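Exercise 7b. Backbone tokens:
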């Protein structure tokens, strides 16, 4: 079966994995102090986070241009592949809606299968990784899409960050939630809900307590950990990500843990110090 998986760069899939699996990545635009960059092309995480607190304004993100999406879809079709494109949650971005519009003007729209990930970062990236690993078992794209949707609907996204300031400024969470967290000096635990939007899940009083809470939530909700590939994403806090992975392995027989860095698109909204955990629930 000739299928190619396409994602946008907000999937935060480690480059070595996307290269090995042949995943095609659409670069997302980021505007920093009036200048346009494209994630993974001329904007990379090391410089992005090093300069984050020095930017005059909070970086702004947008969906890929229709022309870029169309060029990538058409290139994959011309290579003889059907397209399964998994995009950033429609609850957080208009990328999926743009992709629907673009598909309808492509040369073979019936060969382009679009999925609203209802997620972000490596949690949505896991959908693509698992799709690639499962593809050989399916005779057609439609059946593989059904399996990806089953994975999507089981995926949990839980994360903690140093401050809600950037989510509030970017309009991804209410000012009230940000004010209360700042007033009480708490560390929020957030999640992406079934509608693909960000909600506050819990609050704790320290960073260590937040990391323990992430593990506790996963322990209570994960199904068949011995068969799961889980993801951990971090925004310039790799050592904490490694410590989190070690703590999880001490408590659960996880099959595989993938650690990746939160890119500049997602990072523009959550800021440095964010740590996220992705797994499938029952």
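Sequence design result:
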């Amino acid at each position: 079966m000739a299928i190619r998986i396409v994602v946008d760069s907000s999937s935060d899939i480690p480059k070595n994995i996307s290269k090995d699996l042949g995943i095609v990545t659409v670069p997302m635009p980021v505007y920093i102090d009036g200048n346009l960059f494209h994630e993974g092309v001329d904007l990379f995480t090391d410089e992005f986070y090093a300069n984050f607190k020095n930017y005059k304004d909070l970086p702004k993100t947008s969906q890929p241009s229709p022309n870029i999406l169309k060029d990538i879809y058409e290139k994959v079709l011309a290579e003889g592949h059907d397209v399964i494109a998994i995009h950033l949650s429609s609850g957080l971005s208009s990328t999926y809606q743009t992709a629907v519009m673009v598909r309808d003007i492509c040369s073979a729209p019936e060969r382009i299968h679009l999925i609203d990930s209802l997620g972000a970062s490596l949690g949505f990236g896991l959908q693509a990784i698992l799709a690639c690993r499962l593809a050989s078992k399916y005779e057609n794209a439609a059946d593989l899409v059904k399996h990806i949707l089953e994975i999507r609907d089981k995926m949990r996204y839980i994360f903690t960050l140093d401050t809600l300031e950037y989510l509030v400024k970017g309009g991804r969470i209410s000012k009230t939630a940000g004010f209360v967290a700042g007033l009480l000096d708490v560390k929020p635990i957030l999640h992406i809900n079934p509608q693909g939007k960000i909600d506050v899940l819990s609050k704790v009083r320290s960073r260590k307590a937040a990391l323990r809470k992430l593990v506790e939530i996963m322990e209570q909700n994960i199904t068949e950990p011995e068969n799961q590939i889980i993801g951990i994403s971090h925004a310039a806090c790799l050592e904490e990500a490694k410590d989190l992975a070690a703590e999880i392995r001490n408590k659960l027989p996880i099959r595989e843990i993938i650690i990746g860095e939160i890119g500049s698109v997602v990072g523009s909204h959550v800021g440095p110090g964010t740590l996220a955990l992705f797994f499938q629930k029952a």
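Instructor comment: The chain is about 40% helix and 25% strand. The two ends are 30 Å apart (CA to CA).
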